[in-house]
Amino acid sequence: MKSRSRSKLLCNQMLQNLSYVNSNNAKLKRFSSLFTHISIEFRFFTCSLTDPSLKPHKYLSSFNFNGIAHSVISKYSHFLDKKEPKRYYFPNDASFKIPLLDISDVIPHVTRRFLRVLRLKPEDVLEMLLGFQFECERVAVKSTKVESLWKIFKCASEQYKGFRHFPKSCELMASILVRHGMFREIQLLLLAMERQGISMDSKVFVSLIEGYVGVGDLERAVLVYDQMRERDLVPSLFCYHALVDLLVRMKRTQLAFRVSLDLVELGVSVCEGENASFENVVKLLCRDGMIQEARNFVRKLMALGFEPSSLVLNEIALEYCEQDFEDSLRFFAEVKCSPNVHTGNKIVFRSCTRFGVERANLFRLKLEHLGFMPDEVTFGILICWCCRERKLSGAFNYLSELLSRGLKPDIWCYHALISALFKEDLWKHAQDVLDEMVDMGTTPVLSTFKILLAGYCRARRFDEVKMVIREMVNCGLIESSALEDPLSKAFMIVELKTLSVRLKRDNDVELSKTEFFDNLGNGLYLDTDLDEYDKRVTGILEDSMVPDFDFLIREECSNGNFEVAYSLTSEMARWGQEPSLSVISALLKGLCSTRSNIKLCSSLLEKMPKLVNQLDQEVLNLLVQAYCKIGLTRKGWLTFNQMLEMNLSINSETFTALIKGLCKKENLRILHDCWDFALNGKWLPGLVDCISLVECLCHRGMLKELSLTGFSSIAHLFVEELLQHGCALDQIVYSHLIKGLCKEKRYKVAFTILDIMLSWKMVPFLDVSLILIPHLCKADKLQTAVELMENVLREQTTSHSDFTKRFCVTGKAGEAAIVFQNMLSKGLLPDADIYNMLLQQFCHTKNLKKVRELLGVITRKTASLTISSYRSYVRLMCLEGKVDYALSLKKIIVQESKSDSIILYNILIFYLLSAGKIMQVKKVLNELQEEGFLLNEVTYNFLVYGFSKCKDVSTGMHYLSAMISKELRPSYRSLNTVITSLCDIGELDKVLELSRQIELKGWILGSIAQNSIVEGLLFQDKVEAAKQFLDRMVYKGLTPQSVRYDNIIKRFCCLGRQDKAVDLLNVMLKKGNMPSSTSYDSVIRGFCSRNQLNQAMDFHTEMLDRNLKPSINTWDLLVQQYCQQGQPAEAAKLLLSMVQVGETPTRPMYCTVIDGYRIENNPGKASELMQMMQQSGYEPDFDAHWSLISNLNNLSDKDHNKSSQGFLSSLLAGSGFSSKKDLNSKMG
Predict the structure, then answer these.
(1) Among 669, 743, 738, 646, residue whose Cα is nearest residue 699
(2) Which helix (H) or strand (E) holds 526?
(3) What are the backbone dihedrals phi and psi of residue 799, each rounded to the nearest 5 degrees, phi first?
(4) Which of 721, 718, 709 is nearest to 736 (CA)?
(5) What SS3 class is residue 252?
(6) For residues 787-802, average pLDDT
(7) Please, are residues 678 and 659 in contact by the beta-carbon 8 Å criterion?
(8) Backbone phi, psi, residue 751, to 5°
(9) To the nearest whole percent, how much of the chain has pLDDT over 90?
(10) C-alpha angle with apex 1163: 1159 to 1168, nearest 5 degrees?
(11) What confidence tens digit (pLDDT) does each residue in 229-270 have?
(12) Among 16, 632, 782, 1154, which has the highest number of CB atoms less than 10 A from its own CB?
């Protein structure tokens, strides 16, 4: 049963996630792989129904889930096919036409001329690129536009063999691609240029490298760098450092060193800010054991003025320590630098380990000669090693020197001295050292007392042992009862309990067994294995002479004290020691186990970077999972890559954690790479991981690319497939499915699923029901809505409020009132929100009776009236002419809510002005002044707009001036209204003055205001002033985004200012606004009136490409123009184009073109056109017939024999005559 419930949960979760998201191609592939895996792995689950009368359900273990998964995937495979984009009309289609139209709103003045050409010339492409580059520098251009430009560039080069772009075109294209980060396209461009023998400027390569570095694509960045160096091009310093930093981050030592060496060999002086990149390379070399390369590299850098930091120099010196201490000293002497304390201590400690304390001290003196400043740890190391080497006098000499330098010994020094004294049988002085330790402010710890116990036990001073135990009890380090033997406690602390040590008195007269005497002179001896006894206590003393941090950390890890263990690593580094791999592995595992300690893993590995390459796959897997768990996905990805380089095995948990982390970070490129690695590694996530991964893939905002359909479609198919296999599903599945379908607005399908649910006597969840009911009402499925509502209300009495609110939101006032009454009848108390929402709904339906009743209830219930309710009420009262009601309610509300008073006054002012109640508004303004309220920006905008609308322009201007003087910015609506009103009454001078003020402040005038000003100027025949005004708006960037110039385009065309009309049309296009057909018609007529037919046809073609329909007059005018210029063939093409776009040419159009062919003496073409005319339902007149027949004599005999009979017969047939053959057939 447990596995069934888990599997049922999985099924529901899958359907829920499938129902809530949209899909794209890449995600569906990944989702389908997860889906198939889930289907195979979990077969045992059942879905129960609420109706026990149903037939027993099949266990899904009997199903072929793999088959079901593949069946569903095959059924939704059509969702993967992208829909064809909307196809524009192109009479002479070419591969570059669609992208050309796409960029025409960026450079319309350029692209317009190429919409009718079949082939682009190199100079055409160059012109487009120049224009595009200019616009890119002025305004932000979308990347999609650049993609279209790139398509044009490619298509042009593929038009015909021998086409070659100008070098300047290639450079411009590259710079535009670089600006928009289209790196793949840049590389393709570079390859094409290389084939053509065109050299590219280094800036393109530099930008490409920087782009790849920015997205972390190391391989491509290095590839482009190598290409650049092969061409003897030099990257910029910034490019060099960006590439080096990435290589260091990815720990690619050889490549980082090679690139850095290239830069150094250029001989460029090194600035202070550039040190970090070089230092990181040096550290990387040292960590990989390339010490000689690091040293030579530093030498070259110093020759260029590079001053290496002490950290870098110490890194090199430490590596030398691994090989030869003398080399380390020589290096410090060479660079004239002294080691830091950390490095010096490590050198001293390693020297002690290898050569003994005396030689180590010689190294210390040499280091001091170089400027090294030893600290207490330095002398502590020497003291400890003297104690280990039984050179006690030397230890005290170093202690004396330490104290003479004003340093304070740490606890490890005292431990070493005490241990050495005990080992040299100088136990009497151990207490002196302990006393001095306490006097110096160092508190004894448990290990201190353990050394004392071991020493006194070794010296057989058991009275002192008892004293130490009492001191430990007093310090709270141990607990001991009065009945417990202190010696037994001591033996347990020093780990002697297993030896069963007993202290006995020698009763023999000759004292043959006596080993020592107590304070009373009694002969005593130890009853135990003395050799083992002495070995153990001596071992404690010897181990305490030099601190073994590796052992201490292991002990803390075994006790679960991982934070303490981590803190010991810092102390360990101070003492020049390094942890063993096993200890670090144990510590990392422990830190990874607790979320709060995971960041400590990162800092630990930063301190010990060499260890990463030595860790085993178990630890590294845990590290990746831990990093991803707390959001350090980048670190997890880097560690993952290191594992790949080391050929380590990566487990499924690591893949799952990394993929989930990358989903959250929304890094698609790395996510795809990781997914591919996971699939190749036979990744199989578990049940819980499957669910969480589905949630990540669906809900983390990863599906930002173009989506074609919802996953709820797939969920629907999955449900159908399960039902066909005899599986009955519960309300959870159906609810998830309906919710997803509603989210995609597929209500008809959702209603079908709902009907299935209701037929099975199931009801969707409350939240799903609340979503469905309003849409059921809109679809006139009131019976189903009421049934659903009643079902829910029976089970959920608290949902009355939710239903009432839902009905109010969807405008169903009647239904809301019914639920409200039902609620009151059951004794349920509505909250203030319900009262307010009902009031707003009744106001909307203008139900004055209900509004008064409900307002009375709200007042009696002392429920607060919201701003929205007040707005709805005031609006209704003003529309119905009941202003006094609005004013009286305002008095009540203002008294209750002083903080919102200005908002309430603003609402009242707006609706009073909307109703034309100017006098009441002035009274309200006086009241505002008396109450001491200051008008805000909203108030001023309402006043300017309202008074202007009421034709009281002078008052509107008064408040507008006051507003501007207070540095408040008027809204578009206010400015549009007041300027339009001033223009209507002929106050153009005031409008221009106001416009100048707005220009000076850099405010943008709305499209309506600009149109009003220009039309006013044109009305007064001030054409040049209108043109200058528009030019200023464009030059100063004061053109609104949603600008419309259609009316003034037409006006300028009528005035013969064709150039300005075209400029305005281009401005509209650049702002992303489609001009109307009328604007294009006006421009085309203007060019035709100037006999500029080519320009007219450019606009005509653009018009058709934008799916705009020219007027019949425009078609007629173009046909007339072509025929007047003796080009009836072009005119005939226009007629054909009309038919193709669904227009019917007029009879005069046909006649005009036929006359043109007749003038050209081309009866064949004329006859074809006459047939086309007849197909359009027109009959040629007699003159046209006779004219064509008479022209047959001009044809050659051969042509006559071939065509005259066909021509005549077709002509006569079209006119109602039948041939002889047809006549005979009819008679027969």
Answers:
(1) 743
(2) strand 523-527
(3) -90, 0
(4) 718
(5) coil
(6) 59
(7) yes
(8) -65, -35
(9) 16
(10) 120
(11) 888 888 888 888 888 888 888 888 888 888 888 888 877 665
(12) 1154
Counting Cβ atoms within 10 Å, is residue 724 exposed (0-12), middle (13-18) or buried (19+)? Answer: exposed
| Contact status, residue 688 vs residue 663, Cβ threshold 8 Å | no
Between 423 and 855, the more confident residue is: 423
* Least confident span in 543-557, 580-594, 690-704, 954-968: 690-704
The answer to whether residues 660 and 628 touch, using CB atoms and an 8 Å cutoff, is yes
**CA Rg value for the chain:** 46
Rounded Cα distance between 1062 and 1052, Å, is 9
Burial class (CB in 10 A: 0-12, 13-18, 19+), 617: middle
Structure tokens belonging to residue 329: 């000293």
Task: List the one residue out of 190, 151, 153, 187 whose CA is nearest residue 169.
Answer: 153
Buried b / exposed e over 899-908, threshold 16 CB at 10 Å, is ebbbbbbbbb
Query: 302: which 2 tokens?
Result: 């110093």
- Please state, in angstroms and rounded to a whole number, the distance separating the CA atoms of residues 382 and 365: 12
Q: Which of 84-88, 527-531, 759-763 has the lowest mean pLDDT?
A: 84-88
SS3 107: coil
Most confident of 524-538, 747-761, 1097-1111: 1097-1111
The per-residue pLDDT for 802 is: 56
Instruction: Give the long-range contacts of residues 149-155, CB within 8 A, separation 24 or more.
Output: 149/99, 149/103, 149/173, 149/176, 150/177, 150/182, 150/185, 151/96, 151/99, 152/96, 152/99, 152/100, 152/103, 152/120, 152/125, 152/128, 153/125, 153/129, 153/189, 155/94, 155/95, 155/96, 155/99, 155/120
Terminal Cα distance for the chain, rounded: 88
Q: What is the pLDDT averaged over residues 1178-1202?
A: 57
**Spatial distance between the Cα atoms of 1100 and 1106, rounded to a whole number of angstroms:** 10
Q: How far apart are CA 110 and CA 96, in angstroms?
A: 14
Amino acid symbol at 584: I
- Least confident piece of the model among 361-370, 633-642, 880-889: 880-889
Going by pLDDT thresholds of 50, 70 and 90, the confidence category of residue 1067 is very high
Q: HSE-up of 449 (CA within 13 Å, CB side)?
A: 24
Asked if residues 1114 and 129 have their Cβ atoms less than 8 Å apart, the reply is no
Task: Retrieve residue 956's tokens.
Answer: 């509107």
What pLDDT digit, counting tens, does each position of 976-987 carry? 888 888 888 888
Residues in the chain: 1228
Bridge-partner residues for 897, per DSSP?
A: none
Evaluate whether 851 touches 821 at the Cβ level (below 8 Å).
no
Whole-number Å distance between alpha carbons of 288 and 253: 8
196 neighbors 205 (Cβ within 8 angstroms): no
**Structure confidence at residue 63 (pLDDT):** 46
SS3 of residue 998 by DSSP: helix
What type of residue is 837?
Answer: M
- Coil, strand or helix at 425: coil
Q: Which residue has the tokens 């079902």?
A: 791
1224, with CB counted inside 10 A (0-12, 13-18, 19+), is exposed
Residue 562 · residue 589 · CB < 8 Å = no
What is the C-alpha separation between 353 and 363, in angstroms, rounded?
Answer: 13
Q: What was the pLDDT predicted at 367?
A: 83
722 token code pair:
């399960």
Read off the pLDDT of residues 94-147 as tens digits, 9 standing for 90 and up: 467 889 988 988 999 999 988 888 889 999 999 999 999 998 888 888 888 999
Model pLDDT, residue 529: 77
Q: What is the pLDDT of residue 458?
A: 87
Tokens of 453: 């116990």
For tokens 């002196």, the residue is: 432
β-pairing, 523-527 vs 502-505, is: antiparallel
CB 663 within 8 Å of CB 696: yes
Question: CA 186 to CA 174: how far, in whole Å?
Answer: 6
